[in-house]
Write a structure and sequence with these properties.
The complex is a heterodimer of chains A (345) and B (414). Chain A is mainly alpha-helical. Chain A has a single domain (85-343), classed as MetI-like (MetI-like fold, Orthogonal Bundle), CATH 1.10.3720.10. Helix content of chain A is 66%, strand content 1%. Chain A has a two-stranded antiparallel ribbon with strand order 1-2. In chain A, helix 1 (21-57) crosses helix 12. Helices cover 67% and strands 0% of the residues of chain B. Chain B has helices spanning 33-57, 63-85, 88-126, 130-133, 151-181, 185-197, 202-216, 223-247, 251-259, 264-275, 277-293, 296-301, 320-329, 333-360, 370-391. Chain B contains 15 helices and no strands. Chain B has two domains: 33-126, no CATH class; 151-360, MetI-like fold (Orthogonal Bundle). Chain B is an all-alpha fold and 414 residues long. The chains are: A mainly alpha (345), B mainly alpha (414). The interface between A and B is large, with 98 and 100 residues.
């Protein structure tokens, strides 16, 4: 008996496409070519155009705190840090709110209103950012844009009062320090607190909180019912059950959702543009008037820009894109590696 | 020995067949009277104490510190009251419950305030019919609200989003189908690039179109350029969520279709796409809502006008978010009211889209609508009747055979 009969030869698989499948394959494939083309064109164009300004500026681009490309002095140190400060403020404000609301919807809310709340939060995630910008502009900074609202200030305490409170009591912490603010001076004006990183951050927080909340809620509700009941059967209180089952199960989803919110907060333009008064130096005091971000810089400067300034703006946009890209890929990596994200996508 | 015969089984008693007791849903809530009293007492004590501190000791003034102090006292008192008759573990549980409830209430109030504030501030402009029927060409900054409107912005928004959808729906769906039907190295590359581009900030998308189409190709600022910018932003979002939805279609359904001899194209057209219909619609509508509301790409590419412009290829065109943005930058109260009015219209537009998305999609595969459920129930009752009639030996004449309701092509139908 010869041995070679027993050896299983791997068969070559040939796929024969049906005749009508050929145009189908071709059609969808060319659509994907077009999409890939557009997408890579945007990326490559950003790189090439931005590279022109980057090449002229060199490493100074990351360290200069000024924006005057036509005389060759420009850099994104101030706007880059401004963007990060605004986004971090937004995340610090938004994440506790979003996590609390997500826990409330998934664990505490009465059955009758649960679905309504879910829809409401999802709807708020779809509300255009310009609406949040309006809200921040007129409700948080009364008396600045619209003199008719000055009297309404007393009945609608806003973020400016929170700013003043923080500056009064926590002013010894460097980031809460405000130059020229004296808590014992009763004539101090509130205008030094307006148009600040903090106000912009709170508005962006309102914008990203529904997005973060809806992701967290999704993950929390997926926590396995058997483990929940097991914890309760062992005598855990509701919080004990949440801490031992729901939060560990949803941890990756919470981190991922937070990072997706951070990505949105970094790229937000209009809400920030409406609120801040732009400056071009690093502003580490988040309560103080004056802030800036990359997207606001682009919206501010694109119109009367020379070709070289456009390419400098492109370079700034590229830096922003790289930042959001890292944050988003990190988020999807964390979500897909986790237990709660394995089933979903 | 005489054996007594066992008594014959008693005839069935005339007692009616035992009906199943109707189950009443028991309340599993565990709120005792002492809990309610604890909450109420702590709340009253906290409010009273902070009112005393504010009015008598003058430690603080204003509504915001009052709420803050009252809240802190409430948490404190509630914890103490609960500690009287519970363990530390329960106290922690109660305090976390208070915290979670208050965070949720805070966020929901803030979100409600966004909506209510917009509508209240927009109301003065909103109640004039001319707000919806005229453009701003004859209305100066000082003109009353009875003059001028935002028809041009509504039309601009609809034109831009139509063009953007006309480009991105076919491209996006075809790409998503390609990604799910022909997996491979190339598909993986496309998927990665698309995923990367979902991170593209909208202002950068606008800047890209501004630099290429407007500055290099020399196309003037127009509605078409703005649509292109919106497309660049929307396309990755639509592809990504459609791809997810298409991958959720059960492989068994596709394999069944192919086992019956249909080719790929037929399978996609008759099985995959109908199964994923609701999810795909949701993906497109939510992408549309995102595209409609974006201001920054339009700001860079559309130009600004107060005139009604129906031609997307020539002349500037304005969209609702851009109109809102420009209105509120003006110091005139009437302009600001118009800005809020436009924002309210924009929100209504998003709301309508969202409701449509909820009605069409929003339900998982296999979850039926009310109508589908009714038809299923009806059919099942008729089947039951037919089977029982046959068991009783009644022949059902063909004319009496219950008419089968038209089957939908939903998978897994009875």
């Amino acid at each position: 008996m010869s041995g070679d009969l027993l050896v299983d030869q791997p068969r070559t698989l040939t796929t024969k496409h049906d005749r009508s499948d050929v145009p189908f394959r071709l059609g969808t494939r060319s659509a994907s070519f077009v999409v890939l083309g557009i997408m890579s064109l945007a990326g490559v164009f950003l790189l090439v155009q931005g590279g022109q300004a980057l090449g002229a500026d060199g490493p100074k681009f990351l360290t200069t705190q000024a924006w005057d490309p036509n005389s060759g002095v420009f850099g994104i140190a101030a706007v880059l840090l401004g963007t990060i400060f605004i986004a971090l403020t937004a995340i610090v404000v938004a994440v506790p709110l979003a996590a609390g609301t997500a826990l409330y919807i998934s664990e505490y809310a009465p059955r009758q209103i649960k679905q309504t709340l879910v829809t409401l939060v999802d709807l708020m995630a779809a509300v255009p950012s310009v609406v949040y910008g309006l809200w921040g502009l007129f409700l948080f900074q009364p008396g600045i844009q619209d003199s008719t609202r000055a009297d309404a200030h007393q009945i609608t305490p806003g973020a400016v009062d929170v700013s003043q409170f923080l500056a009064t009591w926590l002013g010894w912490i460097p980031i809460f320090h405000v130059d020229g603010f004296n808590p014992s001076d009763p004539l101090t004006t509130k205008t030094i607190f307006t148009a600040s990183t903090f106000i912009a951050g709170v508005v962006v927080a309102m914008m990203v909180a529904p997005i973060i909340c809806s992701i967290m809620r999704e993950v929390f509700t997926q926590a396995p019912i058997g483990e929940r009941e097991g914890a309760l059967a062992l005598g855990a209180t509701r919080w004990g059950m949440i801490r031992s089952v729901v939060l560990p199960f949803g941890r990756a989803g919470m981190i991922g959702g937070t990072m997706l919110g951070l990505g949105r907060a970094l790229g937000e333009t209009i809400a920030v543009y409406l609120i801040i008064s732009p400056i071009f130096t690093i502003q580490p005091h988040i309560l103080q008037s004056g802030a800036n971000s990359i997207s606001a810089l682009i919206a501010l400067r694109y119109s009367e820009a020379s070709p070289f300034e456009i390419s400098a703006l492109m370079a700034a946009g590229l830096a922003l894109f790289i930042m959001t890209l890292i944050v988003n890929f990190g988020a999807s990596l964390i979500i897909s590696r986790s237990r709660s994200g394995a089933s979903s996508d | 020995m005489t054996t007594t015969l066992a008594a014959p089984p008693a005839p069935p008693s005339p007692v009616p067949v035992e009906t199943e007791p109707i189950e009443v849903r028991r309340s599993t809530g565990a709120i005792r009277r002492s809990d309610t009293f604890g909450i109420l007492g702590a709340a009253v004590a906290a409010i009273s104490l902070s009112a005393w501190l504010m009015s008598q000791l003058l430690i603080f003034q204003g509504a915001l510190p009052f709420i803050g102090f009252a809240y802190i006292f409430f948490v404190l008192f509630y914890g103490i009251v609960t500690r009287f008759d519970e363990t530390g573990m329960v106290v922690r549980d109660r305090l976390v419950a208070v915290l979670v409830h208050s965070l949720a209430i805070l966020l929901l109030i803030a979100l409600a305030a966004v909506v209510v504030f917009t509508f209240v501030k927009g109301a003065p402009a909103f109640w004039h019919l001319n707000f919806f029927t005229t453009d701003m060409s004859h209305a100066g900054p000082l003109d009353p609200l009875t003059d001028g409107g935002i028809l041009h912005a509504v039309a601009g928004t609809l034109i831009m989003i139509t063009i953007a959808l006309a480009i991105s729906i076919p491209l996006g769906l075809a790409t998503a189908v390609y990604l799910s039907e022909f997996p491979g190295k190339y598909a993986r590359l496309v998927r990665t690039v698309v995923e990367a581009m979902t991170a593209l900030p909208s202002i950068v998308a606008g800047l890209f179109i501004y630099a290429t189409v407007i500055l290099i190709l020399g196309v003037p600022r127009s509605g078409f350029a703005a649509s292109l910018a919106i497309t660049v932003m929307m396309l990755p979002i639509i592809i990504r969520s459609s791809d997810v939805v298409l991958r959720l279609v059960p492989a068994g359904l596709k394999e069944a279709s192919q086992a019956l001899g249909s080719n790929r194209w037929r399978t996609v057209w008759n099985v995959t796409l109908p199964t994923a219909r609701s999810g795909l619609t949701t993906a497109i509508i939510l992408g549309t809502a995102r595209g409609i509301g974006e201001t920054s790409p339009v700001l860079l590419t559309a130009g600004l006008t107060s005139f009604f412009n129906f031609n997307p290829f020539s002349g500037p065109m304005v969209s609702l978010p851009l109109a809102t943005f420009t209105f509120v930058k003006s110091p005139e109260p009437n302009y600001i009211a118009r800005g809020f009015g436009s924002a309210a219209v924009l929100m209504l537009l998003v709301l309508v889209l969202f409701i449509i998305a909820r009605l069409i999609g929003g339900r998982g595969p296999g979850v039926l609508t009310a109508g589908q459920l009714r038809r299923r129930l009806q059919q099942s009752r008729q089947d039951d009747y037919r089977i029982r009639a046959r068991e009783l030996g009644m022949t059902t004449r063909p004319t009496q055979r219950p008419k089968r309701p038209r089957r939908r092509s939903t998978p897994g139908g009875a």
